[in-house]
């Protein structure tokens, strides 16, 4: 089938005609380009990924479809099976492995990252990688994985990146192009269904609360705040916190305004045909309470036929669960609400119940879902109305106000394409949030995508294994974090040029015909010593002779650098150089202890464009490839000419200085004073440039230092311990490696190994003032091993503090007793009785994380008994409610 006929066949099967942005994206794929598609939720971005998958199927190549969440992977798998048939589509998430050799394989991003580091041969057949929800790369815990994938994928693989609407999409696409080749940015800011923002506020004396437009109607879509709503900020408030149904309280019992209750809002939406609706509450307990409140108020939103279909969905989704599991999960109470068309959706629920809510809501059977913000990421649940109860949320540590990006993500679900001509976003009034802030949040539709990339212990071990030192630093320099920092550097470089020009003028005014004014001024100040002037002169003479292309050795630039430009004047000679990591630096006499020596020469690419990233990368590549005698793998030489050793000082000379007789001495001194101020400004800006230019490099050096001190590195080589660290993917990677390498997991039965391993995956979450419960250990032997793990963590914390690295989170034994009980075969109700603050969903999530780690231990450990024990432990834990999922082998 030709490219044209394939495209025609694909479009003929679509439910809707292509939008302009979709057509442009498909054109880019047909032209052989990678694409970044930034568009609102529900606009049809997924169609572009499906086209890439169809192209790979027709050509006999492969597409990997990656998502940030296992639940989202499961959903995309089902969608792609429906579109292309079960034989063509596979799934790899850690929990599920279905046809991993299929033409289209859905997986979490971490699975792909691990395949890249393992050098999987299947990558040779790969044509496309879809990065769904790619804006997830700013997640501070997992975001770096997206950048690792983009940097390390084989060059022949094309990228289809799907993102929410971000304000710097062009910048992000330009970065992808620097690391992946030709990339087209497709940006669509228009929503497929128009959104009306509403403000829900109750007023004393009115039978119904007000639903006021946040913005005035305007044909030009000029978002002008509604003056009627703005007037409310000046009115007193009424306290209705003692009402039957909880709501935000006001400040004054005699006030006129109040926050409508959850029940009142749902009843109003039902009366005005604004359902189905998703209400975001940001509290699991709040979501569950809202469901109970609706039931208690008598709200029923379904017909008899709908209730029958809802019961069928519920029974099908929970078929794998035992009767005792269902009792522990309060299934009967959940099903009553579910059949009434009301459901909760949050991380405290087990996957089958969340999947039932998703299926029923998408089918129009469940009319109201009370959800936390976890629903906002990717899951296909469009609504007619989105309600945001509060504009702040608790992060697990403190409360934060919603960002414009979060507001956009949440309200992006309002309006179903092909069903609604308009979607609604309802924000509940609060006495603590002025209307002006609500309008400002709703009017800012985009946010800037940032990077969370930083070198971890596992990442560093893999870089050492795969690259030499210069190449590793080069790869770190390719990150989006460094790319954004380099953009800041360009602006700072412009400021440096301006200040440098002013400084040069003042230095020229300092030049005296009768003698060396700098020497005279230092002598008068008592800071100059005999010999310093001669040394400075020799360094300045050497710098003055430097020419573009001269190669020097210097530790400040990571081992070697090439001269780009000579910036000498009548005094204070400086040179602009490029390091092997593509960083620009200015060097002057204070940067050298002795006169620098030229150790090689390079041809400078033309046109000369030092601010252009492509120019810098090309020249840095030549610099890294240049062979210099006497240089080790890190680019250091035995005879560095950097400053570092203190020189022996001699007393100051008291000879008469000829400059003291100069008639223009006052002018020289004024110029010197201005030059001092400019020099300080210049140095301050240079420090900012250096901090941005090599921040990742410095952190990388600190990680290397910790790894070497703890026995994972020997120079630029991995030790046996380092080889194990390279294969451990965990937030606590180096602590797990410590435990494996010191035998903490050895000699344990599977149930015991699962219990002790849980300290590396579990983390107690809650308010800062609430201390986690004291650990309870099933045996004295496990308690002893726990104390050994604590010693490892304390040692690591000390090493990290010495190196200037952020502290790794401590291991947490809070789940150890529960894991031992579950691995020993106890029912869900038994293990949940052992804790007061663990829901069924929390338990399932923690157990899946533990199972993943146990499987890694079974692969990494060199002890045969430990390997088998870890494998058995994973099997014992992955049962019942833990392995229940909507995905089955087709």
UniProtKB/TrEMBL annotation:
Basic and acidic residues composition bias: residue spans: 651-661
Q: Which SMART domains does its entry note? A: DEXDc, DSHCT, HELICc
Instruction: Give the coiled coil ranges.
Output: 668-695
Species in which this protein is naturally found: freshwater metagenome
Q: Which GO terms describe its cellular component?
A: Ski complex
Domain named Helicase ATP-binding: residues: 26-184
> What range(s) does the Helicase C-terminal domain occupy?
264-464
| Keywords carried by this UniProt record | ATP-binding, Coiled coil, Helicase, Hydrolase, Nucleotide-binding
Supply the name of the protein: Unannotated protein
Region (Disordered), start-end ranges? 223-257, 630-661
Provide the GO biological process annotations.
Answer: nuclear-transcribed mRNA catabolic process, 3'-5' exonucleolytic nonsense-mediated decay
Q: Which PANTHER family match?
A: ATP-DEPENDENT RNA AND DNA HELICASE (PTHR12131), ATP-DEPENDENT RNA HELICASE SUPV3L1, MITOCHONDRIAL-RELATED (PTHR12131:SF1)
GO molecular-function term, one example from the UniProt record: helicase activity
